[in-house]
Design brief:
Layout (H helix, E strand, L loop, with lengths): L1 E3 L2 E3 L11 H5 L2 E9 L2 E2 L2 H14 L8 H14 L5 E8 L16 E8 L5 H6 L1 E7 L14 H12 L4 E6 L2 E5 L3 E6 L2 E4 L10 H12 L4 E3 L4 H5 L3 E6 L3 E8 L2 E2 L7 H19 L6
Parallel strand pairs: 7-8, 7-14, 11-12
Antiparallel strand pairs: 1-2, 1-6, 3-4, 3-5, 5-6, 8-9, 10-11, 10-13, 13-14, 14-15
Helix pairs in contact: 6-8
The protein binds N-(5'-phosphopyridoxyl)-D-alanine.
């Protein structure tokens, strides 16, 4: 079951007019929200980021947080599996093709749910390979825009060589991954790039830094140079669907000793524990 503009229906039934500005211009924004035990994780934060994306491209939020919460709850109930991920997609709507914003057009709202398949234990035990590439995206990477062509091309560069992610470098500094945030660990310190217009403010990124702070793991939020990436003892990747993963090879060379390190092990465990606590309702899942 999916949700499209007021109605619940099967995905096969769903139809979008070809003049939808999402189709024509990639003129829209999206969110990806993980659901554990049928409860959306960090819902308030995801809806806040959605609001930021909508404000940034000047689309009026079609729903209040309470309405979003209600729609998502109904969609979760209508789909199989306790662990799902929700994909929310809002475009500027349907109008005759013209770059300028159309007047009086309602946004298109689409939500779907898919099974959440977090990385298998075997993959976490070895870690994954990544490559680096020059970050050639625009200068508003803080907007979760549906126009993902640069991200698609950058991620495919990794897939083409059997790697899972592309670590992006801009003017000598690391920004993020093509579809994830990236952390560096060095001498027991977790390094995170600062949130700005060059990266998506990841919800998982925030959880990781909160866990580090709460458990006395030293961390620094600051610009991370290409040299620090290449000489990292550990590289970690985070996203709502991949949670936390160790990158153990970069551009064909081992990261640190080439196996997942202690920072990963500690943060992964803390993340799993935190999820369980949140699911049991013992900790506010904001
Ligand atoms: N992507 N940076 C980029 C460019 C991303 O696309 C994502 C997530 C992240 C991580 O953000 P979060 O922790 O909030 O998921 C960082 C989602 C999962 C996607 O496009 O499918």
């Amino acid at each position: 079951m999916i949700y499209l503009n007021g109605d619940f229906m099967s995905i096969e039934e769903a139809r979008i007019p070809v003049l939808d500005r999402g189709f024509i211009f990639g003129d829209g924004v999206y969110e990806v929200i993980p659901v554990y035990s049928r409860r959306p994780f960090r819902l308030t934060e995801h809806l806040r980021r959605l609001q930021h994306s909508l404000d940034s491209i000047r689309i009026t939020n079609p729903h209040t947080d309470a309405e979003w919460g209600d729609l998502l709850e109904r969609l979760i109930a209508a789909n199989e599996g306790d662990d799902q991920y929700l994909y929310l997609h809002i475009t500027r709507g349907v109008a005759k093709r013209d770059h300028a914003f159309p007047k009086g057009v309602a946004p298109t709202v689409f939500i779907m749910s898919n099974p959440l398949l977090t990385p298998p234990k075997e993959l976490l035990a070895t870690g994954v390979a990544a490559i680096t590439a020059s970050d050639n995206r625009w200068l508003r990477c803080d907007i979760k825009a549906i126009s993902l062509l640069p991200n698609v091309l950058l991620r495919q560069m990794a897939v083409d060589v059997g790697a899972v992610e592309t670590v992006l470098l801009r003017e000598g500094f690391m920004t993020e991954g093509a579809a994830s945030n990236i952390f560096v660990a060095k001498d027991g310190v977790l390094l995170a790039p600062p949130k700005n217009h060059l990266m998506l403010p990841g919800i998982t990124y925030d959880v990781v830094l909160e866990l580090a702070a709460a458990h006395d793991i030293p961390y620094e939020v600051r610009e991370i140079s290409e040299y620090e990436v290449r000489t990292a003892q550990e590289l970690l990747l985070t996203s709502s669907t991949k949670e936390i993963m160790p990158i153990t090879r970069l551009d064909g060379k081992p990261v640190g000793d080439g196996s997942p390190g202690r920072m990963f092990a500690q943060l992964y465990q803390l993340y799993q524990n935190y999820k369980v606590t949140v699911m049991r309702g013992n900790t506010p899942n904001s």
